[in-house]
Amino acid sequence: MPRITVITVTLNAGRDLPLTLESILGQTYPSLETLIVDGYSWDDTHAVLKRYADRLGRVMMIEDGGIYQAMNAAVQAAEGEYVLFLNAGDRFYRADTVETIVGRMMDRPDVVYGDHIYVEGRVERYVRSADFDWLWHRLQQGRIDQKWHTAIPGHQATFTRTQWLRDMPYDTRYTICADHDFLFRARAAGARMQYIDEIVCHYMAGGMSGAQGVRIHREWAHAYRKHSLRPLAVDSFFFATPLASPFPTFSAASGRILEGAGPEIRLEPSDQRWRRADEPTVSAPRGMETVGIEIRGVSPTPDQTLVIAHDQELLGAERLVSGGFALRMAFIAPLAAGEEITLNMQMPASASGAKDWGLETLHFLACTALTGNWLDLLSADPQQVADIFLDGWHAPEWCDEGDEGDGRAIIWSNVEQASLAFSLSAHIKTLTLFVEGHGGNREGQELSIIINGVIAGSTRLEAGHGPQRHRVAVSNLWREGANIIRLCVDHLAHDASRHQWRGLGLGRIEWE
User: Fold this and answer.
1) CATH for 4-224?
2) pLDDT tens digits for range 330-356
3) Does pLDDT of 376 surpass 90?
4) Which among 111, 148, 291, 353 would be 20 to 30 A from 311, CA to CA?
5) How sure is the predictor about 133, in pLDDT bands with cuts at 50, 70 and 90?
6) What is the DSSP string of 259-289?
């Protein structure tokens, strides 16, 4: 039975404090410590504390250096294994809330959180938190919106292992959202988090975060973008346009241009940011492997080839037309966190003059984690499919199988070498692909399967025979973490009905 310390930070909140204290003192959980931190209030707070003196634990008086400074001081004094902050005006949802949460903890996680009721005047609104892995993945990909933001655990609904907050205290440079900043820093550092579908508290609106609309948007953006592969997407959520953001294009998590490119130029009113590039050196994101890259820019010379290398080893290459370009390129093998790559634009032999190109945006691609033993395009989440299939693919299609079945989904490659990437929690020995050749390839196709830059196997795809099951041994090639699979066919077929070039079709992957 872990000891829980409930901390209440207060300043001139004598009117709201009794409701909070009654809520804490009425909890049925036996191993509960109360810790009150007061910033030398000058209202009737002292009278309230005196009235409850015989029932309270400890009361700390500290100079008011900000709410998060007070919280950090309280954590240092807390005796419980976990701490929860319930400030003046907030209250637990039920008398057995703490007991219920502790009873549902699994393997003593580092952060445990539930839902809360947001109280604004006479209006009460139920706010449901989300699984933190979902929140983390969406942030990394820059796919944040109001639903995502609202689903971040409420501070008053979060139980945190005390040692984590001692080792990684709230960043007092933030005045409003240091609690959100801590959660994402903790997740990045490997904290184990558990969501419990229980309402923890009533949270009273009108505190620090409700009083500083402009400042809070800047703080939120700053706290979130440093964990995102797409910081500009984070900026777009909080500011009217990317140009309105006070922050640079890149962040530590997204990778950073180290040298070989000019200063950032903001072009108004086009809402674009450009850098004149020669041969940029770019650092990969810290804290995660990456499997590819997305680049937007401009190539004034036709038929230039953008070559990406790491330690003089090729990661990928793409031939460009003249003018603006946007490319999504999978690496040949995963790139370790923090490694440096070079972007070299190679001019055609017939061109003259110095090479020159412009870089607008650059995003590294993270690897998507899969669970279970298979991935079927018919039942897979569309966004998950988009994240896994990196480059060289048409959009997935649904195929009707008539009276013999309910149908299936398939994705066709549109180049001779198409790539996908994912990670698994366990090491696997075999990978089974359900692939098919296009009917336009009457002579069939040769398919080669390359895993992390090494050929794992090959097979022949017969034209128009439907899905063919091909199993390949991968035990010696499969890595813990990110894995990149490249599927290569010797030639494409033209689909006249859709006016497309097609290589192979893939509908399902199994592993064991």
Assistant:
1) 3.90.550.10
2) 999 999 999 999 999 988 877 766 677
3) yes
4) 353
5) very high
6) EEE---EEETTTTEEEEEEEEEEEEPPTTS-
- Bridge partners (DSSP) of residue 419 are 391, 486
Alpha carbons 85 and 206: distance in angstroms, whole number = 16
The Cα–Cα gap between 433 and 322 comes to: 37
- Amino acid (one-letter) located at 209: S
Which residue type does 1 have? M
pTM, entire model: 0.83
> Which superfamily is assigned to 256-366 in CATH?
Galactose-binding domain-like (2.60.120.260)
Residue-wise pLDDT for 298-333, tens only, equals: 888 888 999 999 998 999 999 998 889 999 999 999
For the chain, the average pLDDT equals 90
CATH code of the domain made up of 369-511: 2.60.120.260
- Sole residue written with tokens 């003196």: 53
Helix residue spans in 54-161 (DSSP H)? 67-77, 97-103, 132-140, 146-150
Q: Evaluate whether 360 touches 385 at the Cβ level (below 8 Å).
A: no
Helix (H, G, I), strand (E, B) or coil at 253: coil
Q: What are phi and psi of 298, to 5 degrees?
A: -140, 135
Domain with CATH 2.60.120.260 in the chain: 256-366, 369-511
